[in-house]
C-alpha cells in the first residue's frame, strides 16, 4: 500500500508504545502446495491468493508467535475452509452504548482497546501501523487519551473463525473498548444469512459478558466496486448481498445494545474514488484514515 498523507490524521508509520503486535495467535502453515486449485464446493473461487490452511491460538502453538507485521506480509490471506483460495474480505465494527468517560478515581487511565475481525481490521494491503485501529489509537493519543491497543484480527476470517479463534482475547485482555470488523468472508463463502445472524448473536453475547464501556459497529465496505471483485460474481449481485448482511448486522447490533455507525455511504464514495490498496481489493491507508476520523468522536 502506498501511504497517503491527506486527511485529518497524520499517517505516522512508527509503532506506538504499548500496542500489541499480534501476540494472541501464531500461524501454522500446514499445506504449502501452491498448485492447490480445488474449487469451493459451493462455487469456484478465483485463485487470486495463496493461503495458509490454519491459524491457532498462541497457547496451543509450539512455535513462537509472529509479529503483526510478519503475519500481514507472510500470510496475506487465510482460507479458513481449506477448500481453495478464498481472499480475505471483511466488514463490521461495533460500539456498545455505555459510559462515555474513561476517568477513574477522578483521573485519566489507560483505555484498553481490543480490535476483533479480519483483513479490514488488520489492514491488509499495507503495513499494520496504517490500519484503522492503529490510526485511531494515534488520533486518541494526540487528544490526550492513553490507549493500549491489542489487534487480534486475522486476514480472511468470517464470523465462524472470530468465534473460534478471537473471542478468547475478551476475558484475557478485559477491554474497555471493542471494535469488530467481520462479514465479507461470510459473503464470499455464500454462508447462510441465518448462520451469519446466529454467529453475530454469539459474538455480541461474548463481548457483552466482559462489560466494555464501548463496542463500536461499522458496516461492511462496498468491496463490490474493487478491481478484483468481478472474480466473485456480478458486482450488482455482490452489492445486494453486502447490503443484506449489513442490514442483519445493524439489527443484531441494536438488539445487543450496540451503536451501529452508519458509514456505508462514505464507503461507497471511497470505492468510487478508487481508494483501494495495490492488491485491488482492500481499502488503502487514506480510506482507513477516514474510518479512524469517523470513530474519534465516539471517545
What order do the helices and strands come in, and which of them pair?
Layout: E1 25-28, E2 54-57, H1 68-74, E3 103-104, E4 107-108, E5 111-117, H2 119-122, H3 132-142, E6 147-151, H4 159-166, H5 169-173, E7 177-181, H6 184-188, H7 193-209, E8 214-215, H8 235-255, H9 264-272, H10 285-295
Parallel strand pairs: 5-6, 5-7, 7-8
Antiparallel strand pairs: 1-2, 3-4
Helix pairs in contact: 3-10, 4-7, 7-8
Characterization of this structure:
The protein is α/β, with parallel strands linked by helices and 299 residues long. Helices cover 33% and strands 10% of the residues. The protein has helices spanning 68-74, 119-122, 132-142, 159-166, 169-173, 184-188, 193-209, 235-255, 264-272, 285-295, and strands spanning 25-28, 54-57, 103-104, 107-108, 111-117, 147-151, 177-181, 214-215. The strands form 3 sheets. The protein has a 4-stranded parallel sheet, with helices on both faces. It has a two-stranded antiparallel ribbon with strand order 1-2. Strands 3-4 form a two-stranded antiparallel ribbon. β3 and β4 (107-108) form a beta hairpin. Residues 1-18 and 21-100 have low confidence and may be disordered.
Brief description of this entry?
33% of the residues lie in helices and 10% in strands. The chain contains 10 helices and 8 strands. Mean pLDDT is 73; it is low at 1-18 and 21-100.
